[in-house]
Amino acid sequence: MSPVTVDVGPLAPEDVVAVARDGAAVELSETALAGVDRARAVVDELAAAPTPAYGISTGFGALATRHIPTEMRAQLQRSLVRSHAAGSGPEVEREVVRALMLLRLSTLATGRTGVRRETAQLLAGLLNAGITPVVHEYGSLGCSGDLAPLSHCALALMGEGTVRDASGVLLPAADALAAAGLAPVELVAKEGLALINGTDGMLGMLVLAVADLRRLLATADIAAAMSVEAQMGTDRVFAAELQALRPQVGQALSAANLTRVLEGSGVLASHRDDKFHRVQDAYSLRCSPQVHGAARDTVEHAATVAGRELASAIDNPVVLVDEGRVESNGNFHGAPVAYVLDFLAIVTADVASISERRTDRFLDRARSHDLPPFLASDPGVDSGLMIAQYTQAAIVSELKRLAVPASVDSIPSSAMQEDHVSMGWNAARKLRRSVDGLTRVVAVELLAAARALDLRAPLEPAPATAGVVALLRSSGVPGPGPDRHLAPEIEAAVQLVASGAVLSAVETVTGELA
C-alpha cells in the first residue's frame, strides 16, 4: 500500500480510512515541512519578545493571565500535556486513535501551529511504526479541541504514558519508541498546546462513519429489495418516473438500486399482473427509497461538513505566518462536526427502524403472504426467527436512545472561561454504536429475507438477490430447517454486511450500485 502524503492541502477521506483502518504509512511532504519551519520561526520570535503571547509565554484557559518566564516554558508544555491527559474509561478503538493522530498531523502540516519539524515527524513516526497511544472513552467536551484524547497522544511523543505496539501489546511509551528506533521529543514553547487543540477525534470518527454508512445504506437497499421480493411485493413503485415527481437526490438513487437488484426476479414475475390483490404494499416496503434516500442525503451533507473540516487548520492560538503574529480564535469549537454526528445518529436509527418493520412482516402469517409463521420449519415445535426479531427490536430501541442529540448539551468548564462546549466527542462515540447497531439490524433482515426466498421455491429470485442467498449459505448460514443455535448465524451475517461482502455479491451481478 502506497504511503499517504500529508501536505499543506486537505487529506482525502479515503486517505484517513486507509491510515486508520488499513495501517497505511504516512509521509510529510517537503512543502509541508518548509511551512512548518516558517511558522516555527514566528513562534520563536514571539517567544523571545517581552510582550506575553497566549500559548507561548502564558498559562492556558482560565490561567492565561500569568506570564511564564523563559526558563519555565519547557516545563509549561510538559505540565500542560501531563495534566490534560486525564481520560478515563474503556480504551478507544485503534482505528479512531490512528485517525485522530493523522488529522492532528495534517493540521501541523498546514504551517499554522508553530511546532518544530521534528515534532511533526515523530508523530508520523508513531503512525508508521504502528504505535497507538491508549486513549480513553471519557475526557473530551468537544471544545478547546478533543483535549484529553489528544493529550494522551502527545504524552506518548514525550515518551510517557501507555501505548500498544503494532501487535497490540500494551507497554510503556518509552519502551515502544525505543523498540521502533524513535526518540521522544522535548516539547518547547507552543508545541504542547498545538498537539492537543483540535477536533481531530470527532472528525476522525465522522469520516469513518460516513464511509461505513455509505456502504450500509447500499446494503439496506439490497435488504429492502429482498424483502419486497420475498413478501410478494411490487417493484412498480420504484419506477424512475415516479421518483421524478419528487426530485430528492437520495430517493432516486435508492429507488434505482432497488430496481436493479430486483431485475429478472421470477418471484416478482409470478404475480406482476395481479392488480387486484397487490394494489399497494405496506409503507415499510413501498417507502424504502424515501427513507433510505433521505438518510443518503443526510450522509452526503455530513460528508460536505467533514470535507470542510479536513481542509481546516484548527489550533488556538493560530500562527498567521504572513503577518508574523499569533492570534487567538474559536475554530476549535466542535459545533459543525457535532451537529452532523447527531444528525447521522438520527437517520441511522430510522433506517434500522424501517428494516426491523420489514423483518417483522416476514414472521406474521397474516402479513407474509403464506409463509410459515416465524419462517419456522415446524411452527409450534420450532420458533424459527422469532427471537432474531426480538434482537432487532432491542437494538432499534437502543438506537432511538442514541439518537438523542449530544450537541444540545453543554457543561461549563475551566472556571467559566470555556462556558459553552459542543459535546462533539460524545456525539461521535454514540454514532459509532449506532452504526454497529444498524449493521446488525440489516444483517437480521437479510437472514429473514434469504430464508423466505428459499421458501418461495420453485419460484426463482433475481440473480442479484440469489447471489446474497448463496453468499449466506456458503458462509455458515444454512437454509430453512429445524431450529438451531441462531447467534453464530446472525454474527456471520453481521460480518458479511460489515465487510462489504453482501454489497460485493450484488454488484458482481448489477454493477456498482449508487
Structure description:
This protein is mainly alpha-helical and 514 residues long. It has two domains: 195 residues, Orthogonal Bundle (Fumarase C, Chain B, domain 1); 306 residues, Fumarase C, Chain A, domain 2. The chain is built from 20 helices and nine strands. The strands form four sheets. Strands 4-6-7 form a three-stranded antiparallel sheet. The chain has a two-stranded parallel sheet with strand order 1-2. The chain has a two-stranded antiparallel ribbon with strand order 3-5. A hairpin with a 4-residue loop joins strand 8 and strand 9. Helix 1 packs across helix 9. The two termini are 26 Å apart.
Q: Helices and strands in order, then pairings?
A:
Elements: E1 4-6, H1 13-22, E2 26-28, H2 30-48, H3 73-84, E3 88-91, H4 94-108, H5 117-129, E4 132-133, E5 136-138, H6 147-157, E6 162-164, E7 170-172, H7 173-179, H8 191-196, H9 200-230, H10 240-243, H11 249-262, H12 266-269, H13 283-286, H14 288-310, E8 318-320, E9 325-327, H15 335-363, H16 386-402, H17 424-455, H18 463-473, H19 487-498, H20 501-510
Parallel strand pairs: 1-2
Antiparallel strand pairs: 3-5, 4-6, 6-7, 8-9
Overall structural domain count: 2
The major β-sheet equals: 3 strands, antiparallel
Average pLDDT, rounded to a whole number, is 95
Low-confidence runs of at least 5 consecutive residues:
none
The secondary-structure element order is EHEHHEHHEEHEEHHHHHHHHEEHHHHHH
How would you describe the shape? Answer: elongated
Report the total helices: 20
- The CATH class of the largest domain is Mainly Alpha
As a percent range, the share of helical residues equals 55-70%
